[in-house]
Design brief:
GO cellular component, one term: membrane
Number of strands: 32
Largest sheet: 5 strands, antiparallel
Structural class: mainly beta
Radius of gyration: 41 Å
Number of domains: 4
CATH superfamily of the largest domain: Immunoglobulins
Protein name: Ig-like domain-containing protein
InterPro entries: ICAM_VCAM, ICAM_VCAM_N, Ig-like_dom, Ig-like_dom_sf, Ig-like_fold, Ig_I-set, Ig_sub, Ig_sub2
Mean pLDDT: 89
CATH topology of the largest domain: Immunoglobulin-like
Strand content: over 45%
Keywords: Cell adhesion, Disulfide bond, Glycoprotein, Immunoglobulin domain, Membrane, Repeat, Signal, Transmembrane, Transmembrane helix
Low-confidence stretches: 340-360
Pfam family, one: Ig_3
Distance between the termini: 74 Å
CATH class of the largest domain: Mainly Beta
CATH architecture of the largest domain: Sandwich
């Protein structure tokens, strides 16, 4: 602390420690000139004031809002008197006691900062220690929502999910976890926020839909990581799940096939694609009386009865749903027969079967 008078100036160091070691320079100035004086401060550890001879147990209690709490303060040297100073549960000065207890039957004061103090016959004469309390509260509710219907997600698109955590404390120890099924996909912490009273938290996450996610559940979870002194495992509250359905365009496991058949044989071309909603199918091929098309809820087939040169050529199957389209090409050849040019004439589009519409 600096002090100035009309006779000079002083610097007072209260409780000297190693942080005060160094050079202190005083400058005296008037209209005629300037002079300076240097002081070198050194520190001898043996001359340090003893540590405060008070021990608090537990040192960092973790208390659920409204629960009881008890903390002991013990003097390691004989005190003249000691006690607890607090907004609730204060004990006043106790003489002839080696320890005092701070006890509250229901702790609801978010600002509680009890202090144990002691007066001693020898140094440090007087001292105090502060008690650090973590007072916590489970969230009143945890909910999850989406900016679009989750039963109509389209593969490849991003959706904004929002997790709402209501009335939780202290937010500094909160982790919001996002799950797809049992898989953790994202976490967010709030260690920078030192607010001690209950708050509402809103967290957003961008989710990219994939066909592998269809049928899975999305949840968000509010977890309080209160350290080793807190409850184990850390308490966690989950939202109700969102059941998701992902729509995706048809896809074939193979791009195309070349079919070689013997004249007169029965040849079947199978067209089956994976898609959601289930695809509708149609074909293009060279028309012939011995070709039949069939549709089922699992795909479509073209059957060539008694293959001949008129059946050689390209057969293309189209699989279509509300998201997109895919196609697969079959090239039909006759063994030991040259292609019949006439088979490439007279293309038609035949048949259209509609599979039952998907209901999310």
């Amino acid at each position: 602390a600096l002090k100035y008078t009309d006779r000079g100036s002083t610097v007072t160091i209260n409780g000297t420690s190693t942080s005060n070691i160094g050079i202190y320079t005083c400058f005296a100035t008037n209209e005629v000139g300037e002079a300076q004086k240097t002081f070198k401060v050194e520190f001898t550890p043996g001359e340090a004031v003893p540590e405060c001879p008070l021990e608090i147990s537990p040192q960092k209690p973790v208390v659920r809002y409204g629960d009881p709490v008890t903390v002991n303060c013990t003097a390691t040297q004989t005190p003249r008197g000691m006690g607890w100073e607090a907004t609730v549960g204060a004990t006043g000065m106790k003489t002839g006691a080696q320890s005092v207890t701070w006890s509250v039957s229901s702790l609801t004061d978010w600002t509680a900062e009890p202090k144990c103090y002691g007066n001693f016959l020898t140094e440090p004469k007087q001292c105090r220690k502060n008690l650090i309390i973590i007072l916590y509260k489970y969230p009143a509710s945890v909910s999850l929502s989406s900016d679009s219907p989750v039963d109509q997600m389209v593969e490849g698109r991003q959706y904004q999910l929002q997790c709402e955590v209501q009335n939780i404390a202290p937010v500094q120890y909160l982790t919001v976890n996002w799950y797809r099924g049992q898989t953790l996909i994202h976490s967010q912490t709030f260690s920078h926020n030192t607010t001690r009273t209950p708050v509402n938290v809103s967290v957003r996450h961008l989710f990219t839909a994939d066909r592998a996610h269809s049928g899975k559940q999305l949840t968000c979870e509010a977890e309080l990581n209160l350290g080793p002194e807190g409850p184990q495992p850390p308490p966690a509250n989950q939202s109700d799940p969102l059941q998701i359905t992902v729509l995706y365009k048809p896809v074939f496991s193979q791009s195309g096939d070349t079919i070689q058949t013997v004249p007169g044989n029965i040849t079947v071309l199978v067209c089956r694609a994976d898609g959601n909603p289930p695809p509708r199918y149609n074909w293009t091929y060279s028309t012939a009386d011995n070709v039949a098309v069939k549709y089922t809820d699992r795909g479509s087939t073209v059957t060539i009865n008694g293959a001949s040169t008129s059946n050689t050529g390209i057969y293309t199957c189209f699989a279509t749903n509300e998201v997109g389209e895919a196609q697969k090409t079959f090239k039909v050849k006759l063994k030991n027969h040259a292609p019949d040019v006439s088979a490439l004439v007279g293309w038609i589009v035949v048949g259209l079967a509609v599979s039952p519409m998907f209901v999310g």
